[in-house]
Design a protein that fits this description.
Elements: H1 11-26, H2 31-37, H3 42-50, H4 57-67, H5 92-98, H6 100-111, H7 115-130
Helix pairs in contact: 1-3, 2-3, 5-6
Length: 133
């Protein structure tokens, strides 16, 4: 696409930011911990995660090394035929992790020490979601 000049953050930046957030959470890191690892402020991580600032290639590479992922992990949920697509509706996991209540639930779930308690939470969520159908 020669001649295409993007001058502001767009939906792609928001999706990459949402993927950064999901990967950070999945690795159990706070914004402050990730920021310190790449020599940034936590406010800059927030801007990346909200898609208000673009992530440069070298910083993206640092994130890959810290989060132990391949670069394509940041581009998941992009529609191939649309540059301004939103997160695919079929991928509820990402939506769950980037949602504040989903993040809180995931963090609480990871603190459970008993497999029976984990099973009970999963069963409860399934039962509650089936009543909404």
């Amino acid at each position: 696409m020669m001649g295409l000049k993007i001058t502001h953050a767009n939906e792609i930046d928001k999706i990459i930011g949402a993927n950064l957030r999901a990967l950070r959470i999945a690795n159990g890191l706070s914004q402050t911990q990730l920021a310190e690892a790449v020599d940034l402020s936590f406010q800059q991580i927030q801007k990346y995660e909200h898609g208000s600032n673009r992530i440069g290639a070298s910083k993206l590479w640092q994130f890959c090394e810290i989060l132990k992922v391949q670069p394509q992990s940041f581009f998941e949920n992009l529609e191939n035929d649309q540059a301004d697509s939103s997160v695919k509706s079929s991928d509820g996991r990402l939506k769950f992790l980037v949602h504040p209540k989903g993040q809180a639930m995931a963090e609480a779930f990871l603190l459970l020490q008993d497999s029976r308690a984990e099973r009970a939470v999963i069963d409860l969520c399934k039962a509650l979601s089936s009543t909404n159908e």
